[in-house]
User: Fold these one by one.
Assistant:
Number 1:
Amino acid sequence: MRVPLSWLREHAPVPADATAEDVLATLIRVGFEEEAVHRPTDELKGPVVVGQVLTKEPETHSNGKTVNWCTVRVVPDGQPQRLTGKGIDPSGVQGVICGAHNFEPGDKVVVTLPGAVLPGNFRISARKTYGHTSAGMIASVRELGIGEDHDGILVLSRLGLDPEVGADALELLGLTDEAAEINVTPDRGYAFSVRGVAREYCHAVHTPFTDPADAVAARVPAPVEGGFPVAVDDDAPIHGNPGCTRFVARTVTGVDPTVPTPPWLAARLRLAGIRSISLAVDISNYVMLEFGQPLHFYDLGRLSGGIVVRRAAPGEELTTLDGRRRALHAEDLLITDGSGPIGLAGVMGGVDTEVSAATVDVLVEAARFDEVSVARTARRHRLPSEASKRFERGVDPRIAAVAAQRAVELLVELAGGTPGPGSTDVDRTTAPAPIELPWDYPGRRVGVDYTADQVVSVLTELGAQVGATDDGWRVVPPSWRPDLVAKEDLVEEIARLVGYDSIPSRLPVAPPGRGLTGEQQARKRVADALAAAGLTEVLAYPFVAQTDNELWGAPEPGVPVPSVKLANPISEAQGMLRVSLLPGLVDVLRRNTSRGFRDLALFEVGRVFRPVRDPGSPQLPPLGVRPGQGVLGELEAGIPDQPRHLAAVLTGQDTDEAPWVAPRPFDWQDALDAARLAAEAIGVELTVRQGTHQAFHPGRTAVLCAPDGTPLGWAGELHPKLVAAQDLPERTVAMELDLGSLIDAEPDVVQARPISGYPAATQDVALVVDAAVAAGELGTALRAGAGELLEDLRVFDVYQGTGIGAGKKSVAFALRFRAPDRTLTAEEASAAREAAVAVAAERHGAVLRG
């Protein structure tokens, strides 16, 4: 909402020297957010004065263009020119070239003198053109930035003005005013008016507010017979509330359609963000901004019979003021006459009855329409308007007659109209429901000991009626605050108006307890370890396609994967809950690589969803009644299992390129290392086996198992066909673990091994085994045979080829032995090595490579 300061000062005690920034600082204290400051003089600077054309001499030049060489008086006749500067004539008469022709000698116009700056940083100076020195410019509304040109030069007499020559034209046209713009939240629709903002300003400075509507209300005539016929035919509300609860109709005849909009009114509308159109339309917008009540004016001569407010019938259409022919919906609330629909209630009128340049008789409508009905109609037809913006948020039902009276008075005062003898007011509004507010409730909710006087004072200042009860107050909210429906709303207003700065800032005391659970601590250690290793944690959407679940949820293609289907998905292409984290992670990876990120290592900790065999009860219990234990049990039985998983994807290089640094591309071992790192963070040693999975590379896939052999997940390089189909970088690697099961495998006690101070003995061994034997399984056999002296074992070479039999491979291990109490001899290390080879031979037929 943009509020011109001159307008606000009429209803609130804004100091004469206050700027828009000062007003915004004040309104912030009562909970408004500042948006912007609008000040025409930021782009338009003087000297810009009223001038009178003395002479006008048309001249046609060689380019075929006819211009006027004019002399213009810019100071009162007989007075000296007080302005100085280059191009300012001391005589007070300026010579000006003008290309427009819609003025004559004697007309008073706006003259921008040398030194002035117009919007767009257009600087005025004396310059030679068309054989003359033009010392200034006779301005149009476009050049002044206050509208679109219609006939050329702005002639002040056509606006009904006869100012003194030399007067400040910026002040005359309202261009020295400024506006403060605030952000109005949806629950505070009353602030979409100068009346509402003025009230809030008075709250902020703790000054009694004088409602401008009260003075107008005293002049509102009582409804009498003979008013314009209006009927509301909406006895079966669609959204629970009647579509129209009040409809005020007033007539004004004999309006002069040629009267221009006064500059002060046009200036306020323009500063408030609404362009001036015609006097009648401008008056309707002016009253809407003043009181927050949208109005609609009809050409009375183009109406057929009385008005009926009703819902649309099948097949009805309406051409709205924007010129579009719209097919109407059965939920649309319409304004109709004998010819059919003439307007979408609360949204936009119809073109057939709009006020035009020939309108002399006007019907004024001020109504109260249902918020939901207006909102749905505006969105259905993609037709937002200033009126619908206010109706959607709730309009004061008691202001309709006042706004209509204000509009009638302005049409009489400014357009020469005559008010009709009758007044129509169909009023079905109800009083706001009272709210019970206990004595101690505000203090308990906010943590501030508000006194009873503070509570009553604030609520009374708000406009509410407050009465004492045995245990508190009974509060009737004001009509312009439809958002106040519960005691919590009243407490919020008390806190806001007493001042948020009175609420102490203190940290809450943590409840007693043992802190994080063991599972939470384990998850935190895993996430911290991966983040410390350089991976970035992300959160992906849990919604996927069924094809994604079938790809990632089963090792073999064609295996059905039970999935949980969403009843109301955000997209039909993502209508299932995930059974794996990898589809979402891959999507995040793809999105980032498409935007230029090449080296990525991402991980996510989240839940997956697996349907249970018994879906439970498909029927939801009715609202307002607590269901029994049996019903709750059936509902709970239908909740899908939601195990927590850990997944990671990596692509690109492990480090940035730099001098003396050789980056290494991520490969399947990095995915495996990420899984091992997560397991080590909670004290579990994974067992790795060769495996196959339809989403992973056939020869570069590992099955990750718990120490007892239970499979926990997968790691490896993604399948080349999948990488190509999903537009992923080559050699993208990934891993996924059932984190919940991994945490369950965490040992109760982790025994730390003492660090030996004795030297290690290293032995290498190369074993020939069948090519199908996994190096991990061979290493497990070596560990079993080597005994307690074996400190570490690692693979450093795998060979297949010349010298090795067909279907065989050679796997070389480095074995490190160490004793805790002595230095091992070579014989002891060799004996442990031979024992290890013996077990490998027994389990896998391994033989030493010759």
Number 2:
Amino acid sequence: MKVLKFGGKSLDNGAGIARVQEIIIDSYQRGERPVVVVSARGGSTDALLALIDQAVRGEDFAAALERFWEHQVAGTALAFYPERQRLSQLLTGIALVRECSARLRDELVSYGELLSVQYLAHLLGRQGYDARAIDAGDFFVTDSQYGAAAVDLERSRGRCVELFGRLPEGAIPIVTGFIARDAAGLRTTLGRNGSNYSAALLANFLDASLMENYTHVDGIYTANPELVPEVRRIDELSYGDAAELAQFGAEILHTKTIEPLQAKDIPLRVLSTFCYGSGTGGTLVTSQPRRKVVRALASQSRRALIHFEGRNMLGHSGVDARIFGALRDADVSAGLVSQGSTERGTAIVVAEGDADRAVEALKTEFRQDLIEGRTTRIYAEKGLAVVAIIGLNLLEFDRPYRALVRNRVLPILLSNTVPDNTLCLVVTEQERAKALKVIHGELFERPKRVHLAIIGHGTVGGALIGQLIEQREQLREQKHIDLRIFAIADSRHLLLDAEGIGLGWEERLEECAQEGLLEEQLVDYGQSHALENMILVDNTASSYIASLYPFFASYGFDIVSSNKRSNIAPYADYLYLRQTLQLHRRSYRYETNVGAGLPLIDNLKLLHLAGEQITRIHGLFSGSLSYIFNRLGEDPSLTLRAVVEESARLGLTEPDPREDLSGEDVARKVLILVRELDVAAELGDVDWVNPVPEALGELSLEDFWQRFEELEQAIEAERAACAPDEVLRYVGDIVWDGQRGEAHLSAGLRRVRRDSPLGRVRGADSCFEIYTESYGSQPIVIQGAGAGAVVTARGVFGDVLRLAEGYES
């Protein structure tokens, strides 16, 4: 004999009820002697509770009651006349007195199951099967704790065996779940997931070979699929692990469901009604699963933490007994408990709805202690949730914990259960979904998700987005990293997609106007979708966006930027950002600020942190200027105008070439590099020479081009001064005297030897000579492409990848 249990969503109108009949008939025809247990049909219990609330408020419930009945009779010839009359009488009585007792509430909600069994038995009867609708109250005997009654197992077992023994051969029992009666014959209910418990008790009483629990999902998962979309189904599970999952909020199970099955070693299989016949085996719960260690996550929402604080409690016996005695008398069930080693405080997790009652009970019990100061405070912290990790102990919690901290989820309480296969965290309700996603990602998911918000989609930003989209699948397969662009923004538009933005983003972005403050929208979206591992990628030249870095860091974003504005800001702002990053444990990567994609800043940091005394950094800091002066040196017949126009066509210079020719960008890079040596310099400290005559700097772009020959004459004069073995370069220079703590910073046109590292550079390469005390007169030379959107985008991509790979550690 086999027990089949069907949940409310399976029994709703449409495909579900048709599939339920198919499953029952298949089992019957295979000779499995099915006993069927059903919940109220989809939404029926909620509808009855809503009707009760309407009646209590004195509202007209007639229309809502009619809709309830339309749902119950749809597709059948059933009329339910006695039930209609009784429900109407009960609701009318409630409306008159504006009150509904717990006993009356149990009677009213029981109609969901009573109607459900009649409905299903009627449908099976129309197909020629002897289906018998059975009220579980005819054999389940409980106490009178209405709403969550306890079953008298021995009396119920005897009545059950007797009732089922009278059924004719070949009958299919259709039994109500959830409901029972007390010793006086009054209706009771078994509490949350009571239908599953009813089915498990039936399986125990009737010595079933198997219980199959049909739901809307095809098994038990590593987490709640509604909160963690990337869950995995667990094929097999032990009774113990299933009970732990049920204890900590797994919706499909209830702790009491496991006990009757485990007592007689009856397997439980959790299946989906809607996947019947597809070959999926669901989840099998047994005493001897093939996999001994199973990890899964469960959570409880709407929890509160009761804080009990006092002084001079060490050595005073009986305090804990008084605490738990007070909670017992107030009918408050305690969950997790934490106590300091000095016994100065105790924290207890309870249901949020019990919190006020618990605090009042404790204040009453410890009234004199509060007056005398031995107990200092008793209060409730509400709005919390419990996240439980099944199959994990503290020794294995290091990576999940680091990931939680990195994602700004700091547990309020941490508890390792006995036995030590379950670890519980108390977090805020708002952090519950994110905590589940972060922990699940650490325990189960490959690849790891990283969420990118990209601001700016010009030449560099657009190239980066293309590279990210193109490389996403390869990174998933080879690096086990899933880089998801969840936001693309400019000054007027903001495109958001938590699943990841792909091809066609340009058209989608044009349709998404930005409303409100960009920073608030990005933070709110990340929080509402519980996005983990978030990186802000700034490809603008905006001072405003750069000023927001501390804000983003405080809300859990790491930062990658090709924007130099933050690193050339006043030194006080520069330090404030780094202090904020340190406070919130955020990272900031900006390798492309100097040298495009060259590995300059990281290596400079390593040398400095390793104690290497850097004495000079000398080189071609601008790939654009490098290209211009390289071309002039290669071909004396070329004019400056021709080279500048050529570089613009190649995308190496800005539309207004004065932005490059002025050398200001080199001065900025000099400042960025010297600050990496912990020198508190400002941009005004750089001795920067602008080759563009001052008179040309104030002109419109059109007028500048008309008078361009004035600049050419100035540059030609510099070229003419070069010796045959010399070439002209725009050079940045940092000379650092560590003994005196003095730095000389400069940027300007310099004549260099053709056979020197700076003289041999070709194309748009940058070249940096780093002199140190250890290396003496032989510099470390870093040379390579120093300009171009694609090169810079690759550098930004590299910074993103280094951050993402760091999330694995």
